[in-house]
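Usage example:
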Amino acid sequence: MNSTIVSYFSTLPFYNHIIGFFNSLFGENGQMVFAFTVYFIAAFIVVNILSAVGGLGTYAERKISADLQARIGPNRVGPYGILQFLADGVKMILKEDIIPRGADKFLFYFAPMLALLGVFATLAVLPFSSGLALTNLNIGVFYLLAVSSLVGIAVFLGGYAANSKWSLLGGMRGASQIISYEIPVTISILAIAVLSGGISFDKLIGAQGGFPHEWFVFHNPFTFVGFFVFFTGALAETNRAPFDLPEAESELVSGYNTEYTGMRFGFFALAEYVEIFVVCGVAAALFLGGYRVPFDLGGDTLIGQFLQIGSFVTKTLLLYYVVIWVRWTLPRLRVDQLMMICWKYLTPIAIFNLVGCAFWLVKFDGRSMFNLIMN
Amino acid sequence: MFHKLLFIMSTVLTVASALVVLLNKNIMHACIALLGSLIGIAGLYLTLGADFVAATQLMVYVGGVVILMLFAVMLTGGQDFVSKTQKLFDLTPNMGNATSYSVGIVSAALFGMIIYGLTESSLSSIPKKDIDPNLIEASTLERLGELLLTDHVLAFEISSVLLLGALVGAAIIARPDRSTSSSANTSEEQ
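Running the assembly step on the lines above writes:
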């Protein structure tokens, strides 16, 4: 069964009253209308909060980069400059929306929307907690990988539609990079799926525990390596440095979004920052125990759910920090180095990890390293 | 109610995008409309309870095939190039040749057979019933995996060998030809 936010609400005591109220309003369709309403409200909240997180991501990026380079960073708008992203947003909305003369207008309008669509569609399965995630599809991770491939098309179209050399080169690099790095990422996820016996997020996270030694990253040597393979591939899929070739500033001005102005550029930027959050969330869910809290504090109550959200978001934001840290530490790769890392190193290592995890599962009956040492 | 609504929306998306693919002369726009049509088909799978197939549809077609098509169109020059070199849009109508007639006859026969098969046998033999809501909620994932590795393991293995062959073939085709490059080097030296 697919467990969802609605099925979590149905376990709460006041559920029957609400259903009774909806049934009196809409007749026998009351339950469905209620489910739709809950989904709508929950999706609205999640999308808005994640947009704010994406906005704060730009602030965090600037502040952390300033720290790393011994500068001060934004400090004028609000306390410590924390409202800088709102000022940026207002500026972007007020900017003139320019379409280059030779551009393909329809695709030019369409590409940023497609990028946002692909990223926000992944939020449907992101496991914030055991009850309050939007849905928990049986095909969870697979669905997430499938819809996030829309972003690749959006990057490519954004580059093509602008009818500019830099955009085109950036778009082509972006699409080829995203397609290539999907392979090691997917195989790394498959290794974890082998260990946990399912690809829905509640199975993947349920196979782990609240403490670090119960996480999949420390489950066996193969998953430990697999975590780094996954994280590297995910960095490349979000077009972040050191893999930010699609927008390499020193060669391509700004890559696939060179010709975009105002809020259309903002959409691409927002999609990138939200996608980083999603990718970090997936890494936290697959390898770092996701929403599991030590001793299962709080249980299934609402307090427990909020503790779980806290656990998940903390791990995700720590990884988010690492992503920004990596960007401002490492230099950019060349195109040939990029492809070499993917095809000659990450993919074989990921396949080796998959076989190793399967071997471990058979040999040690799926018990973790810690478990074996203790016995 | 919502299942029906989603089904109708997916159908409309599929058919409308397919029409745009047919009627649009801009090949890039047609590719994007094809994307919509494929997503609509994924929606159809989903409303019929095949969640894994729906995600696979998105993964394979959206993530792979459409990007590949866009690449192919762009690298071959796009619409302008094709219309200039092939003169697609100022062809004077003619009476066709042996190829076009034979293709037309074959496709008409195929279409007729499909229509006949649909109307005669399958629709009447399947008892009409509403979709079981339990079937929609249950996952197809476990059953699919089990069947793939038990009853259909031969097909599974053959297709994996086929894909491996395609991969190796692509690598061989894409590999720079060492003999010609070395001979080019020697000729430069001479």
